[in-house]
Design goal:
Blueprint (H helix, E strand, L loop, with lengths): L1 H19 L1 H12 L4 H18 L7 H19 L3 H14 L4 H20 L3
Helix pairs in contact: 1-2, 1-6, 2-5, 3-4
Length: about 120
């Protein structure tokens, strides 16, 4: 459950970055998509997060919700594994450019979600 709380904390940090510097966040996505390990990192991070969410779901305030999110993340990881890296990169760049002017609002909306993840993870302790 502390790993889920850590995920929520990381999400909050990224959300605050989106709020404060949405252009830098967008550019960061584009720069990261250029890295040789981008595609593999995205796959592994989704799979690991999914296993953590599903595996520790019983130790949270809302176990079914976290189990659902965990399985969803695992499915996304598998989907990414089946996606050619060049299409994944193209999508990342498109998203970063298309949503650049919306990252501030996305960040504002995701701060409460981050706080919810932290609460739900450690509130059962």
């Amino acid at each position: 459950m502390y790993l889920i709380a850590a995920f929520g904390f990381l999400m909050m940090v990224l959300s605050l970055l989106m709020i404060v510097k949405p252009d830098a966040f967008s550019k960061g996505i584009i720069v990261f998509s250029e890295k040789s390990y981008f595609h593999l990192f995205e796959i592994i991070s989704r799979l690991v997060a999914g296993v953590i969410f599903a595996g520790f779901s019983a130790n949270t305030v809302f176990p079914q919700f976290f189990l659902f999110i965990g399985y969803g993340l695992i499915l996304v990881g598998v989907g990414l594994a089946l996606t050619p890296p060049n299409l994944h990169k193209k999508f990342a760049v498109w998203s970063a450019n298309s949503f650049r002017n919306k990252f501030r609002l996305i960040g504002i909306a995701s701060v409460p979600l981050s706080m919810f993840l932290i609460y739900a993870a450690i509130g059962a302790a």
